[in-house]
Amino acid sequence: MLRVEGLSIETGGYGLVHDVSFTVDSGERVGLIGESGSGKSLTASAVLGLLPYGVTATGTVELEGRDLLGASERELSGLRGREMAMVFQEPMTALNPSMRIGNQVAEVMRVHRTRPDRRSAKRAALDLLDQVRLPDPERIARAYPHQLSGGQRQRVVLAIALANNPGLLICDEPTTALDVTVQAQILDLIRAGVEGKALLFITHDLAVVAQVCQRVLVMLDGRIVEEGPVREVFLTPRHEYTKKLLAASDLEARR
Ligand SMILES: Nc1ncnc2c1ncn2[C@@H]1O[C@H](COP(=O)(O)OP(=O)(O)OP(=O)(O)O)[C@@H](O)[C@H]1O
């Protein structure tokens, strides 16, 4: 499904990510962990074709065999929101503050023409709001983003991400801004929502990886230094850095 091979990212001749390779198959949930600045978000941005201005990527990124690094912006925007979708930390930046929630969810289906008409897109939007367990979807659909809580807004973002049934979902710290009980609910929804799809889940929280992912990649200074099944890596880490990460987390205490 997603294949990243020899991905390097640089800016002004300065390397930020070095020769990163990994795959995420359909039905697989893969975590990407590592300290702040290790290159996790840039790696995800390269996959999505959303690298910041002046930052460039080389290597191979393929989604269902389709080359993404060489794709035009037009091709990429046809894929984003349809074949691959993303959920970032701050839901407010993903939502349009002046558009009603229902219209925003319907919009992503209209843009990609995945529903035959406006009415069916609106109906599908209500179903999606219900699917992410928002109470009273009709009322939420009429609301504006600022009228919802942070957790409710992230549910809306997830509904938008899942609207077109994408094969790949990329989450970058989706629950970091939420309190723990809401965090657990959103993680459950993500797990349920990605069934049969590929998930790349970026976080610095090892407990979240243990809860959501089957496989984990550990990144340090722009390189993947260790990878494997979550259980294996967390129980018997091989790289010194992974050992340090585990020692610093509260996972140890839960074993
Ligand atoms: N637009 C940019 N221009 C130059 N350097 C950048 C740019 N964006 C990120 N970097 C640098 O690239 C490195 C990797 O950043 P990245 O955001 O991928 O880290 P991260 O692992 O996602 O960290 P965090 O967990 O804090 O989000 C960092 O050293 C960062 O300073």
TrEMBL record:
SUPFAM superfamilies for this protein: P-loop containing nucleoside triphosphate hydrolases
Main location: membrane
UniProt key word Glycosyltransferase: no
Subcellular compartments: Cell membrane
Keyword Transport: yes
Region forming the signal peptide: none
Keyword list, A-Z: ATP-binding, Cell membrane, Membrane, Nucleotide-binding, Transport
Ranges where the ABC transporter domain occurs: 2-246
Membrane-topology descriptor: Peripheral membrane protein
Domain of life of the source: Bacteria
Family label: Belongs to the ABC transporter superfamily.
Protein name, entry field: ABC-type dipeptide/oligopeptide/nickel transport system ATPase component
Organism field: Amycolatopsis magusensis
Organism lineage string: Bacteria, Bacillati, Actinomycetota, Actinomycetes, Pseudonocardiales
